[in-house]
Amino acid sequence: MDFSRRAFVGGALLTPLASSLAAAAASVRTFDLPWPSGRTIQITDWRPRGRERGLVLFSHGALSAPQLYEGLIGHWVADGWRVMAPLHVDSERHPHTKDFPGLASWGARIEDMRALSAHVGNRPWVAAGHSYGGLVALTMGGAAAVPPPGISGPLSDFNVSAVVAFSPPAPVPVLCTAEGYSRISVPALIQTGTADNPPAGPGLAPVPGSWKGHLVPYDAATPGGHRYGLVLEGVDHYFGGLICRYEVPGPKQAERLEDAKRISSQFMRGFGAGDKTARRLLDRQVSNNLPVQLLRK
What we know:
Layout: H1 16-24, E1 25-34, E2 40-48, E3 54-59, H2 70-78, E4 81-86, H3 104-120, E5 125-130, H4 132-140, E6 160-166, H5 178-181, E7 188-193, H6 216-220, E8 227-232, H7 254-272, H8 276-284, E9 292-296
Parallel strand pairs: 3-4, 3-5, 5-6, 6-7, 7-8
Antiparallel strand pairs: 1-2, 2-4, 8-9
Helix pairs in contact: 1-2, 7-8
């Protein structure tokens, strides 16, 4: 989870990835959901062409925005998934981000997902997210995260059928412990890469081997609940600038992103849409060997 300030590439919505996403979607719209505190939550809603396979509620990374994930969302939409994503208050694109410093965004993120879940009603959905959003997705799926101040009641959502978490944060005492991650209650796919090394602190170099912290939710999970860990060789936090931060210099990790898209789609089909054939295809790829290491417990 990267909380450092960064500048987004201007005109991100005009990238080739955005064009491919527009081609995959039958429609895309943004709308606002009200919250009792008086703030509004901007939602982006991509509907697929043809038959809708299911619903994904997506939570973006810290400081990012839903539109900076075309490389993932476009693939899911093309595969028949309707994807809906809030613009969280910590996004640099949010008009009131300065009103939510530090961990104030944690409670707002839970509110965002509660509002969106209430909007779609009592129907199953896949909780997906990247980085900070990966923590949100895992929390929706039962991980016992630390309740944000002012937030009461269960943090999880009983409508969640499965979780896809790209590079969730390692245990952080004020957010979620390893024990908390172990409480996930639905099938889950947790992804990281061998170059996904967080820095030791602001302005410091990445710590070699620290990528393994992103895999703690898989390591801590109880065996037998359809938990999968995906490790991609040479992949960093942003697939070399293909998701979340288009401005990073790369090199682009396009081949490994294709692996991530394929495996996440098979997982979502299998556990989000009840496709037994997709489950078998997924399990055939279980391997301890890189460059695509797929673990199962």
